Amino acid sequence: MDWNNKTIVITGASSGIGEATAARFAKEGANVVLAARREERLEEIKQRFIDSPGTVDYKPTDVTSQQQMEELISFAIDRFGQVDVLFNNAGLMPLSFLEKKKVDEWDKMIDVNIKGVLYGIGAVLPHMKERNSGHILTTSSIAGHEVMPAGAVYCGTKFAARVIMEGLGKELASTDIRTTSISPGVVDTELMDSISDDDALNMMKEGLAKSEMTPLKGEDIAEAVFYTVNQPSHVDVNEIIIRPTKQG
Ligand code: NDP
Known about the structure:
Elements: E1 7-11, H1 16-27, E2 31-36, H2 39-48, E3 55-60, H3 66-80, E4 85-88, H4 103-131, E5 134-139, H5 152-171, E6 177-184, H6 198-210, H7 218-229, E7 239-242
Bound molecules: NADPH dihydro-nicotinamide-adenine-dinucleotide phosphate.
């Protein structure tokens, strides 16, 4: 597929999987719109890709604000004429045991990991339906397939994201718009930095130390996203599960 004049909007683009996906598409000549809250990071990434074949721009966005998500899609359309791909990738994982009652963190995960996805879909869908074209991807997780201790809420949000994408795909079955959940296993990013429950953090660290797995890199997920959107238009890859080879 020729990515010149095609546009991808990526949330959670200031680090990790989102940043790596931005780099992948910029290399192919796409227009890339980065979205996240940390503006200085977005500016730094834009500057890094200034000489790439694609054009990279950004809009500081908090995905928990429906208005900001609408403004993000409007920005991308004004700047580049259309949105071909929306990658709902922003996410938080402050794992904790339920008895710790970290209500603020429960709320944040629900707001970012579920509502943020819905606001993205709601913002881009009218545009894609009008063109009868487009691809919406969301980062779910292995945690959207199986629940781990201290992960009741996080896994709940990732199950929800995956189910929302499945429902969206069914609603769009008579159109040419495609939908995909990306479900990674362990990826080496900043995601664990938000864990404030020491017991949950220690459990995760001990589990990783004992395991023989080599964690995935953001680039591995970017490659899966790139594969998915590059299929012929009659092929809709609805889900990709991708984990480190030695992750159980
Ligand atoms: P990172 O922590 O590196 O990236 C998370 C991104 O989400 C950042 O760019 C952050 O940007 C953004 N973000 C968080 N809150 C908001 C918000 N309110 N509004 C806008 N952006 C926000 O981790 P990953 O790259 O690993 O995470 C990306 C996705 O992958 C997440 O959905 C995560 O759940 C999922 N995932 C990750 C796995 C892993 O092992 N790393 C495994 C499976 C799934 P900023 O702070 O600038 O707003």
